[in-house]
Amino acid sequence: MGVAPFSALLRWLASSRSAQAASGSQYVPAPRDGSLTLPEVYNWHYQHNPHQRVFLWHDHTGPVHLTYSDVIPAAQRAARYVAEAAGIELVDDMTPAKLVVILAASDTVTYATTLIGLSLAGIPVFPITPRFSASVVSKLVAVSGACHIFVSGEAAIQELAQEAVKVLSLSSDNTPGISIMPSYDDLYRVQSPLHPLPSRRYDPSALAIITHSSGSTSFPKPIPWSVRCTSNYSIVDAARDYVNEVTACPAIELFHAWGIMFLSFLPMTGYIMAVLPPSSPAVVPTADAVYQCMTECRAAYALAPPSLITQWSCDLNRYPYLRQMKGIVYGGRFLSRPVGDLVVKNGVRLHTAYGTTETGLISTIFRATDDEDWEYFEINSQLNGAILPNNDAEQSYRLVVTAGPTQALPVINSEIDGKDAHVPGDSLLPHPNKPGYWKVLGRVDDQIMLSTGEIVYPSSIESQLCQDERIKGAVMFGRGQSKVGVVIELDYASAAKEGEHDCVIDIGDMVMPVVERVNAMSPPYARIDRRLTIFAHESKPFTYSLKGTPRRALVMKDYQPEIEAAFQQYNAEASQTQSVPLIPL
Hints:
The protein is α/β, with parallel strands linked by helices. The chain has three domains: 1-280, ANL, N-terminal domain (Rossmann fold, 3-Layer(aba) Sandwich), CATH 3.40.50; 326-443, no CATH class; 447-576, GMP Synthetase, Chain A, domain 3 (2-Layer Sandwich), CATH 3.30.300.30. 33% of the residues lie in helices and 20% in strands. The strands form seven sheets. Strands 2-1-10-9-11-12-13 form a seven-stranded mixed β-sheet. Strands 16, 17, 18, 19, 20, 21 and 22 form a seven-stranded antiparallel β-sheet that branches. Strands 4-3-5-6 form a four-stranded parallel β-sheet, sandwiched between helices. Helix 8 (227-234) packs across helix 9. The protein starts with a helix and ends in an 8-residue tail after the last helix. Mean pLDDT is 88; it is low at 1-24, 499-505 and 578-585.
């Protein structure tokens, strides 16, 4: 599809200027009608909003900010740096460029600026998490056909890239080169004059970026996003006015689809991204560092992973500032219900966002109003599709996202009414009293169907178990049985701090009260039986996904003998305790 048809097809969308313009006459919002691709939106801001703040952080000198007049030239330098190292010719037409991989732990500003520059130059990029093994990285690099890998300065990451290329060389003669990522100084602290990129047109169907799945349910999969896809995903429901609102994202991960999406929202919403100070190596986003970033930058909003919210919830000193904020949003993993209830009870405006790599953001960034229903989200009005009943006992629903003018689908796994569609695979539950409010029950693939016909969604229960620092991971089981059990991997280091690392049984007794507390919040059929609680062996550790959750299928395979033995013993004990009915004479 050419550029003109693409623009005409999308121009019917919201033609009026965004309501966000009311926030100030100096800011000119980019068109939200789809007439501009995402790289064209960045150029729009460079022309119309050169002094609009993009990034903000606080260092020893005080607040520091970068505007579009800083970021876009730096992004162009990043693109030229990459092109020169990888031997890519920069052209002014829609000729596809070779793909490059980023395998780095660079600071947010440097990483984001590089991604923006590659988008402007039309160079497709595949950001890969440095948490993967060399074997996984080599397979992802191979399937992408990358010509070059850019790494950050950490020795461990450089060794990871070298090992991945070494593994790749065993099966291919065409291996990519390796170069160091551009640094913040390379991009922003230069004296030489800027050499602008060639002015170019963008083919909406061309590959822009490859994202990878987290590996929660299977081997990490590369998922290609076209220019049209990235442009569609950047336009989200403006349920709130974010122009000039400081939004803290210091824990954002730009090798993950979640981080890439939040970066793409920035030019379409006008929010200012507060980050940790640029440095090499990058500052680790600990709970203290992230909170300090929020307070020093006076953030109105924040994106935070559930692990950080959990740590803040235990510190009363955090609440005075947290309750001043307009909202904190989390996503990607479940947040323990007791933790969420606690922070909301203390006046924090907590929100959940929901999306997938295959569909983009499904929810709004924040709900339109603040209330105590923090587990629920509202559907993003830009989304095409339908919500259909699963016809199960829980009265749950499934979302079907359909391809359309505002919705590109990089992965198609269904069809509805003759249209290509994608079904994310999560079961949703409507709010009992608020139409339009939904929450995620869990993945359909993970659900445990008991012999009684009842269905257990394990993810939220497992997440609540793992809120205890002594529990590293938990995987529930019981499909086809009358009861559910769990395999728990203990964090022996945490237990040892308390002098309780005598034996697994002792630690097991120690954490059983945690299981009992979680049981008290679960429906009767989803309660874990003590006799079906298995503790993982140190010789058979869990393997984890990018999200930090256990890879369920592998754990179930590794512990199948223990699970079968536990049920054999449980069933034997149950049969012995059953009373024999008397036969009347």
